[in-house]
Design brief:
Alpha-Beta Plaits, about 35% helix, 11-stranded mixed β-sheet, Rossmann fold, alpha/beta, Dihydrodipicolinate Reductase, domain 2, about 450 residues
Length: about 450
């Protein structure tokens, strides 16, 4: 249906927490500029939140307020629904209902899309509406737009991203101050960088949600969050951060997705990166995503991955996109996952056993002749070659020492087999600490 070009687009906002409040503020502050870009005004006319008083405070009487989110998605006056509630529960019902009612949706909900994205995009396709989700990955950094549009000429080879600010803040502090994970986590909670229950962040789940979305767009594959390998930073020890530093590496929680001949890698884990790489020097709560394309080479996207106004910046960019494209025939819009829906590839996510990268191994051994020879022989048997090594001098009167090795690129199943054999040696005590290493070159 043709709309009057200067008739305002009516937006219904679900949730006025940090991002909802930021969206209201930025949209009001930059209204003239945004209208010039979008071709018509974009106005939030109705807001839903359980906390009515907060909603009234945020909107300052400039929008209708309700505690019933379904009243917004069923309101015939609303053109676009912005979902900022989060989670998989009622948020999914609201998004599906909005789509069914022929409304466009803008969401910052990475968990919802990573788990139910395939179903949501299929419904949007069927009803001829758009779902914008720039704000779901890396806050204010326009990484979805870059992958989906800016790099569309490229066969994307891999993506590596620091996409969780909480864990990056914790790792930066651990490295700077030599403190343990638990100590820094408490500090991060006190400063408001970490939630009271930080599990989603520190165990890598949040990063895996975002990586799943980027992987789907980069490679034209369905969302496959359940296939992602997810490892967090809660078991990371200060000693390994220090040894990595001595070897010229920094440890970051990276989301990595790679194109391989038989499928794709999709993994989140603490990773050693050469300290001279730009991404290794991303500190504090900042985010950064490195994308390797065949034509463009490496591109790096850096900025604030969370917060009221950075995330609002992405929400509003989606509102402008939807407003511009609203009258376009659905066949001519940018596809949700960058590839035409009927051209999505059916290539598997590879199991971790098939992943290939470098490895960092720290083992606690008895300080006596022949130990190193035994260990290197086991590695050689599995076709694993050593790139660098530190052997710590045992302290006065100690009979045991740490050996730290970096390997060249190897296949994970061979590294697993080697570790099992080395741990079985009588001269090795306890478990071997194993971290993965990426040169990102």
């Amino acid at each position: 249906m043709q709309r009057n070009p200067m008739k305002p687009i009516h937006v219904g906002l679900l949730g006025v927490g940090t991002v909802g409040g930021g969206t209201f503020t930025v949209l009001s502050r930059n209204e003239a500029e945004i209208t010039r870009r979008a071709g018509r005004p974009i106005r939030i006319v109705q807001v839903a939140d359980k906390n009515i008083e907060l909603a009234k405070q945020v909107t300052g009487g400039n929008a209708a307020v309700t505690d019933d989110a379904f009243a917004v998605v069923n309101n015939p006056e609303i053109d676009i629904v912005v979902e900022l509630i989060g989670g998989y529960g009622v948020a999914k019902d609201l998004v599906m209902k909005a789509i069914e009612n022929g409304k466009h949706v803008v969401t910052a909900n990475k968990a919802l899309l990573a788990v139910h994205g395939n179903e949501i995009f299929a419904a949007a396709q069927k009803h001829g509406v758009m779902v914008g989700f720039e704000a779901a990955v890396a806050g204010g950094i326009p990484i979805i737009k870059a992958l989906r549009e800016g790099l569309t000429a490229n066969r994307i080879q891999w993506i590596a991203g620091i996409i969780n600010g909480t864990t990056n803040f914790i790792l930066s502090e651990m490295r700077d101050k030599g403190l343990s994970f638990d100590t820094v986590l408490k500090e991060a909670q006190r400063l408001g960088y970490a939630e009271a229950d930080p599990t989603f962040d520190v165990e890598g789940v949040d990063a895996a949600h975002k990586l799943t979305i980027m992987s789907a767009i980069a490679f034209g594959i369905p969302m496959q969050f359940d296939q992602a390998h997810i490892e967090g930073i809660s078991k990371l020890e200060a000693a390994d951060i220090k040894y990595a530093e001595q070897l010229g590496y920094r440890i970051k929680l990276l989301g990595i997705t790679k194109r391989r001949s038989k499928g794709f890698e999709l993994r989140v884990h603490p990773t050693l990166i050469p300290a001279k790489r730009l991404i290794a020097n991303v500190e504090g709560a900042m985010n950064a995503v490195l994308v390797q394309g065949d034509a463009v080479g490496s591109t790096l996207y850096y900025g604030k991955g969370a917060g009221a106004e950075p995330t609002a910046s992405a929400v509003i960019a989606d509102l402008v996109d939807v407003t511009r494209m609203e009258t376009a025939d659905p066949e001519n819009r940018v596809p949700h996952l960058a590839f035409q829906p009927d051209a999505v590839a059916d290539m598997p996510i590879l199991p971790m056993a098939e992943v290939e990268c470098g490895y960092y191994l720290r083992m606690h051994v008895e300080d006596k002749p022949g130990v190193l020879a035994d260990i290197t022989r086991i590695l050689a048997d599995q076709q694993i070659s050593i790139d660098a090594m530190i052997q710590r001098e045992p302290a006065e009167g100690e009979q045991q020492t740490d050996i730290i090795m970096l390997t060249h690129v190897a296949r994970e199943k061979q590294v697993d087999a080697a570790i099992a054999r080395i741990e079985a040696l009588p001269v090795v005590t306890g478990k071997i600490i194993r971290l993965r290493l990426e040169n990102l070159s």
